[in-house]
Amino acid sequence: MKMYTKSIIAFVFMLLNAMLYAQDFQGVATYKTSMKMDFKMDSVGQSQGIDKDMQEKLNAMLQKQFQKEYTLTFTPYESLYKEEEKLAAPSPQSSGINIMVMGNSQSTTLYKNSREKRYAHEQEIMGKKFLVKDELENKEWKLESETKFIGQYTCYKATRIIEIEKMSSMSFNSDETKEPEVTKEKVTVTAWYTPEVPVNAGPDMYWGLPGLILEVNDGTRTMVCSKIVLNPKNKVKIKEPTKGKEVNSAKFEEIMEKKSKEMMERYNGNGRGDGNEIRIEIGG
Fold this sequence. Notes:
Blueprint: H1 2-21, E1 27-35, H2 43-47, H3 52-65, E2 68-74, E3 78-83, E4 93-94, E5 97-102, E6 109-113, E7 118-125, E8 128-135, E9 142-150, E10 153-172, E11 181-194, E12 212-217, E13 221-230, E14 245-247, H4 249-269, E15 278-283
Parallel strand pairs: 5-15, 8-14
Antiparallel strand pairs: 1-2, 1-13, 2-3, 3-6, 4-5, 6-7, 7-8, 9-10, 10-11, 10-15, 11-12, 12-13
């Protein structure tokens, strides 16, 4: 029964694809993102007066920092994922705690081309622009028979297992610079896609399903589509980003790690704080 359902989905997707490609099909989807935070202070932090109430306030500040809105402009083969411009929020601060997020820039623009299986990601880190160009990974999804409605669209469930890195570091005012602690763990990514919008696009780096991905949850981060406009009156234009120093994804990871260390060294070297100040850095 499950294989029969998958075959029906694939057939409908291909049929609608053929019809809509001939009509120069396009659209714009709006996504709201959020991140679940459960930051726990170790014994050193507790000795500095960071109690349970302060930890809860810290988690609330971090969650707010990651609540954002993006637009995904798409055609049959191309898409552009961009954060909605707004006034930059001040860095969260509370009772001697400063929070800094690496890679948390509003200038990020992600272009994907599913036909050519490549992407171009324009990002800004510490005032410097980079253009990350590389191949799109064709990761396999497991198509499930479970369905639900997101807005007016019938969505089907798909899952896959990925390995992620989680980085968090606490730097107390001292003469030592602590290396960020990085842990790897396997998580299940759950996506909900609709064959009613027959493009294999989705938010962020997600793609490759027989329909537009309207929701993604990896256990920590959630991206949910709140609005879709199909074939808008003003024809959409997808322009691949070209600004920034061009690097591949592996090189960009090296740069991120280097910039993170520089930021920690610069902070500690400035002699900021009175010995009671705590800085928390999170990879964005």
